[in-house]
Design a protein that fits this description.
This protein has about 190 residues and is an alpha+beta fold. The chain is built from four helices and six strands.
């Protein structure tokens, strides 16, 4: 006994045998809220096209939207659910890159959406500026990768898809002129 009174309703341990007070199903290591649970991060870049160019929709509190990927869910399913929460209508959802950020791996998805009729008060709507890509070494990633560089890479990847993937080309016929100045680039896994 510690000398402190036990909380009401809590059984007194018998001798040194201390069993669990509450049994949890499933084990903590398999529960989504457990500190032991390793979550994959899905970064989502919402973009849409206008006659003036490509625009970005991002959370007002962050440079991009990061979503957790729990067990049994696909990244695209998580991205589509997030778009629905913001009232956005996706046209194309595609993974464009990955990177290490701190102690986690971040998988980036671009979500081309219909131009929103009513802007969500939780999203910042801004024009996308061109930027040089982050470059690393032959065997090492860049030391710093900014969100502008992630968006630039995603749009270069989208430019490649519009030219190479019949499903994406059919879904985005009006995007060819918007992406004309982007150097097409596939997803570089390594």
């Amino acid at each position: 006994m510690t000398g402190r009174p036990e909380p009401p309703g809590r059984p007194e341990p018998a001798g040194d045998a201390r069993g669990p007070i509450v049994e949890l199903e499933p084990p903590l290591s398999q529960a989504a809220w457990s500190p032991e649970f390793v979550v994959q991060s899905i970064e989502t870049l919402f973009v849409y096209g206008t006659i003036d160019g490509i625009r970005s929709l991002r959370p007002v509190h962050a440079d991009s939207l990061w979503l957790g990927l729990g067990p049994g869910r696909s990244p695209a399913e998580v991205v589509l659910a997030a778009a629905a929460r913001y009232g956005l209508a996706p046209i194309v959802v595609h993974s464009t890159s990955w990177r290490q950020a701190g102690d986690r791996v971040v998988l980036t998805y671009i979500a081309v959406v219909q131009p929103p009729a009513d802007a969500s008060p939780h999203l910042d709507d801004s024009a996308i500026a061109r930027i040089d890509l982050a470059r690393g070494e032959a065997t090492a990633a860049p030391a710093v990768i900014g969100i502008g560089q992630v968006i630039e890479h995603a749009l270069r990847h989208l430019a490649w898809l519009v030219r190479d993937d019949p499903a994406v080309a059919a879904a985005l016929p009006e995007w060819a002129p918007l992406l004309a100045t982007y150097v097409p680039e596939p997803f570089r896994a390594m």
